[in-house]
Known about the structure:
Layout (H helix, E strand, L loop, with lengths): L1 E10 L2 E7 L5 E4 L6 H13 L22 E8 L2 E8 L6 E6 L4 E2 L1 H8 L4 H7 L1 E3 H5 L6 H12 L4 H15 L10 H19 L6 H49 L10 H33 L11 H43 L9 H25 L2 H22 L2 H26 L5 H13 L13 H34 L9 H12 L4 H41 L4 H25 L4 H7 L5 H38 L5 H41 L3 H15 L4 E7 L2 E6 L4 E3 L5 H19 L7 E4 L7 H14 L5 E5 L11 E3 H6 L1
Parallel strand pairs: 3-13, 3-14, 8-12, 12-13
Antiparallel strand pairs: 1-2, 1-4, 4-5, 5-6, 6-7, 9-10, 10-11
Amino acid sequence: MKIKKAHIDGFGKWHDQDFDFTANPQIIYGPNEAGKTTLMAFLVSILFGFADGRGKNRFAQYIPKTTSSYGGSLLVEINGHDYVIKRQRGRNGGKVSVTDSQGRQGDEQELKQLLGPMDRSLYQALFSFSQRDLTAVDELNRDEWQQHLQQLGAVGSAQWDQLINQYQKQADHLYKPRGRKWPLNQDLHQYANLTDKINQARGKFHRYQDLQADLKTNKEKLRQAQAELQKQQPLLQKLEHLQQLWPVYHEWQSSHQTRPLADYLTDQQVTMAQELQVREKELRRQQQVYQQRLARIDHQSPKATKHSPQSMPELQRLKEQAVELQAEEALQHRQQTQANQWQQELTAIKTRYHQPLPAPLTPQEKAELARLLNVQPLSRANASQSTGDPSRTAMIGIVGGFILFIIGLLANATFITAIGAIAAFATVMYLYYQRQGNHLAPVTTDSQAIMAFGQKHGLQDFPPDQWLLMQGDLQRNAELDAQLQTAKQDQQRYDHQLAIFNHQLPPALQNLTLATVRAKLDDLLEQGQQARQDIQANTREKATIANNLAQLNQDYSKIHQQKMAIYQQAGVHDDNQFTQYLANRSAAQSQALASDAYGQQLTAEDRQVLAAYANKDELMTALSKTRHQLDQLNLTISQTHEEIQKDKVAIDSLVKDGTLSNLEQERANLAAKIWREVQEWLRYQLAVQWVNKALAGASADRYPAIIRQAEQYFALLTDHRYSQIDLTADGIKVVRRDQEVFLVEELSQGTAEQLYIALRLGFVTVMSDQANFPVIIDDGFVNFDNVRRQRMLALLEKIAEKNQVIYFTADDRIKDLDVKILDLQALKRE
């Protein structure tokens, strides 16, 4: 992924601001409070979502105080295609839209597909670091350095390290070599005291030979049981490891099973079907409401109609017109409110582009524009192929001349040095004149066609790369103009109807409000006409309801047909089947992603061993059998220990001194307690060793590549003073050019920071083929002088060959170096 452009609508102190990230590496300078951290947080937030504002994140949202707009967009390049990722204020990290170069739009799901398994925490752990991370390097001891590198080699091992610390703490609470207060230490000390007392109390024994023979037999039995226990324990550890991996293996195996992809419908068709479902349910509800109203009208008892004077029908007609005009008046009020909102939205669209907006393109015109935009890169590519590619040949000449120059210096051969310098210089001059010739090449006819297209459709005032992306706004602009014009015509029609109505009123009722007119008409009709009016009102209402029901039935039939047409494409017949279809479709789409995620957690050896078991029950049977054997061995060992202790007690009890038997029994009880404590302590120690071996195995395939790449970067940063990085039992060591070896603790702070940077960037380079994301560095080289900074910039240029590099700094010494920078302070002044 490469970030090409950024537009901030509103984020912290930035609003309505554009940034161009065409340089690589991109160096961004700004003093404190210039907005560096805000810009960096904006880039990460657009990709992974805004902070939720809870807890420590309440200050990480960067909600602007000078504008109501919150969010912005990024123009990114992924696998050779451009996408516009736009995020605005909303729930769960903000509302996201993704637009490709063809004008197609997607949502959060599309963004997740583009980012893959990368999330905010993983990105910040792998592709971003700051001066705070480098400052902490000097405080790491040897074990912490070893653990840190192990985490680089085996991503996600932090939880295993926590488990190691937990087991080690539990083991230390039982026994420490130099401790006195821990249970096993105290019991061992007491056992030694009892042994001394027993040795002092021993005398002559009867039956000594028989008891000694029995004691020897029990000791041999104990030895054999302990040997078998040592043989079975690795098997148990392996089976327990397979038990822990079985859920992952089961998910991986399930995700590899062939299952039909429920992908007969596009996302737009699915959305349309869901909308039709909602509208169909709403129409059913309205039909029920109208039918209930008809039932109430039919059950009402109409009153007898009284005779009225000749003027009463005219007054009744005027009253009905007043009622209709009142309803129209309320409708016009709501429509005027809606028109104001439309006008605000229209003004916002026109303000966004700062230019008069043309009419939107038809689908055929969009297709023509897409074709023109796709032809232009191909034309340039053909032009490049026709003129040849001198860059590779020139690069070979420059590298060859440089090598001859270095060989001449090392061999003290002036002639070879001169040849190398002349060859490199001649190649550079050739490349320069070749480039000059290319700049004078005429503009292709495709560019002329694009400009003619823009002139024809009124798009010449906008960049061509925005013509497709802005079609949504142009379409909305045209819709809003039409809606405002319709609202204006409705208002004129209402004013005309109101004037005609006032002209028909008696002089006493003219120029009054509609509510007052209606009240006056009600007084004139009097009580005698109420029954007749009720009957007429019921008749009109029933007619209206009948018309509405007919229209609802027609709308319902049309929507139902549209919905069933979509259902037919998906092979379903009702809403329940469509719901199941959506579930199958979602599961099928996520199955491929789940397969890769689970597969990375299993080694080839793990999958091969797990494949030998038909199901989890078979694995659990083998595990239970092994555990049972171990339990039996432990029981045999425990019983044999008891027998041995009994033999010793019996031997000592033969001594005439009666206190010896009591001492021996006390020591036997203490020995059994010590044995249980030793078993518990050994379990924790074996667990720690197993986790360490598992982590070492998980990182073995990445360690060599990371270390080799880090050695190259470390040599470049230290001007080849250090050429080798070794991981030994004593810790991490580096080898200087004169073959002198140094531990990390012996290095200076600056050199230790260079080692840390080399290791981090080495990891990024090795992993770039699997996860290629921009590397963001926040003031990472404050302790570097100009020479080291120059080397660091050279290294960043090398990293930029595979990854985009964005470096933020507040150090104004960067301006003294011959590099192109983006000055935020100057940008704000503009």
